[in-house]
Design a protein that fits this description.
The chain is of the alpha+beta class. The protein has one domain. It has helices at residues 2-10, 64-76, 94-97, 104-123, 128-134; strands at 27-32, 50-56, 86-90. Strands 1-2-3 form a 3-stranded antiparallel β-sheet. The two termini are 32 Å apart. Pfam families: DUF789 (PF05623).
Length: 138
């Protein structure tokens, strides 16, 4: 949000845009690098795990109720949730980060990874962080 406000000082039209005005291909990625023990009591090796989450900035893929909720929150200054549609992990210790016994967490992680990979290929984007996480060298 800080970056958007900074850009809006030079380009005030940014603040008048709604999420529905953005291209459906608008997205951002967030790299998560834990800096302390999560959960507590683990070894320093567990801190090597990194996550890369992908979030759409357009509401084109959301329903109208989501769009109305975003507009209401924007007007009253509440925070807006941008749930990830894709995910990549690096050096993940499954027994630390995955809690389920029947494999649903693992299936979800694999599904989110496939979606992120498909999204980047569809947009013909070489995302260096994703390539690094996947061990792809260009």
């Amino acid at each position: 949000m800080d970056k958007i406000c900074s850009l809006a000082q030079r380009h005030p039209g940014l603040m008048s845009l709604r999420s529905v005005d953005l291209s459906p291909a608008s997205w951002m990625a967030v790299a998560w690098y834990p800096i302390y023990h999560i959960p507590t009591g683990r070894t320093i090796k567990d801190l090597q795990t990194c996550f890369l989450t992908y979030h759409t900035l357009s509401s084109s893929f959301q329903d109208m109720e989501f769009e109305e909720d975003m507009e209401r929150k924007r007007k009253v200054g509440e925070s807006i949730s941008l749930p990830p549609f894709g995910l990549a992990t690096y050096k993940m210790q499954g027994d630390v980060w995955i809690s389920d016994k029947n494999g649903q967490d693992r299936e979800r992680i694999v599904s989110l990874l496939r979606v992120a990979d498909s999204w980047l290929k569809q947009l013909r984007v070489q995302h260096h962080d994703f390539n690094h996480f996947m061990g792809i060298h260009h």
